[in-house]
Specification:
Layout: E1 2-8, E2 11-17, E3 26-30, H1 37-44, E4 52-54, E5 56-57, E6 60-61, E7 71-74, H2 86-97, H3 103-110, H4 126-138, E8 144-147, H5 156-171, E9 175-180, E10 191-196, E11 199-204, H6 206-213, H7 218-230
Parallel strand pairs: 3-9, 3-10, 7-8, 8-9
Antiparallel strand pairs: 1-2, 1-4, 5-6, 10-11
C-alpha cells in the first residue's frame, strides 16, 4: 500500500497509509472498532473505492481479475446461504471460483467441520459459521488470505483452535492478514499493524513493539503509542 486514502460518507477514513506485507507470514491488523480495519481490508481485496494512493497485491493492482483465485477473503459477517448445508455451500462457491472438485473435502477437513458437512448452515453455532466462512476463503488454495475479525464472538478455546489453523496455513507458505480488536491475539502474529482513527500507529513484530515502548504487554504498548502520537507523556 502506498499513500492509501479512502473517503466514505464525505469523511476521510484512511489517511495516507503506506505499508508492505511479506509473503508467508501471519500479519495482525489490530485496533479498536471503527478505526478503519475493515475499510483497509476491502481496499486490499479490491472492493473498496479509494480516493488516492495505490494497492498492489501479489504483483497486480488490487481487484485485478487475475487475483480472483489467488486471494481468499472472509468478511466479518459469514457470507453463506442459511438454507444450504455446509457441503452445499462449499460446492456452490467452488463452482463460482472454478476450484477443483476435491477442494470441498479438503477445506471441510482443514477447518474441522467434517462431522457438520451435511448440516444446514442455519442450525450451526456462531463458531461453526465462522469456520464455514473461512472454508469458503480457502477454496482454490489462495496464496493470500484476508480475514476480517474471524474470531469475533468466539470463546477462547475456539479462538485458540482457529489461530492454530492460521499458523498451520502460514507454515504451508500462505500469507494471512487477520484483523482483530482483541489485543490478546496480537502476540500470535509474526507482525503487527496497530491502527487508530484511520492511521497506522506502529508496524513491527510483537517483540519489537514491546521493546520500542518499554512494556511487557502489547495492550500497554498500544496505549503507550496512542499517548506518544497525541504528544502527551506515556
Amino acid at each position: 500500500m502506498r499513500d492509501l486514502r479512502v473517503v466514505r460518507g464525505g469523511r476521510e477514513v484512511l489517511h495516507g497509509i503506506t505499508c508492505d506485507v511479506p509473503r508467508g507470514s501471519v500479519v495482525g491488523l489490530l485496533g479498536p472498532s471503527g478505526c478503519g480495519k475493515s475499510t483497509l481490508l476491502r481496499a486490499l481485496v479490491g472492493v473498496q473505492i479509494v480516493k488516492g494512493g495505490t494497492v498492489t497485491v501479489l504483483g497486480e493492482p488490487a481487484g485485478s481479475p487475475g487475483l480472483r483465485r489467488r486471494v481468499g477473503y472472509a468478511t466479518q459477517t459469514p457470507a453463506v446461504y442459511a438454507d444450504l448445508t455446509v457441503a452445499e455451500n462449499l460446492r456452490y462457491f467452488a463452482s463460482v471460483l472454478g476450484a477443483p472438485r476435491g477442494d470441498v473435502d479438503r477445506v471441510v477437513d482443514e477447518v474441522g467441520l467434517g462431522p457438520r458437512r451435511d448440516q444446514v448452515a442455519a442450525t450451526l453455532s456462531g463458531g461453526q459459521l465462522s469456520r464455514v466462512n473461512l472454508a469458503v476463503a480457502l477454496l482454490g488454495e489462495p496464496e493470500l488470505l484476508v480475514l476480517d475479525e474471524p474470531t469475533v464472538g468466539l470463546d477462547p478455546v475456539l479462538r485458540q483452535e482457529l489461530w492454530g489453523l492460521f499458523r498451520g496455513l502460514a507454515d504451508q507458505g500462505r500469507t494471512l492478514i487477520v484483523s482483530s480488536h482483541v489485543m490478546d491475539e496480537a502476540g500470535r502474529t509474526d507482525r503487527l499493524l496497530l491502527m487508530r482513527e484511520g492511521r497506522v500507529l506502529a508496524d513491527g513484530t510483537p517483540d519489537g513493539l514491546r521493546s520500542r515502548t518499554g512494556t511487557s504487554d502489547l495492550e500497554e504498548a498500544f496505549l503507550h503509542l496512542i499517548a506518544e502520537t497525541a504528544g502527551s507523556p506515556a
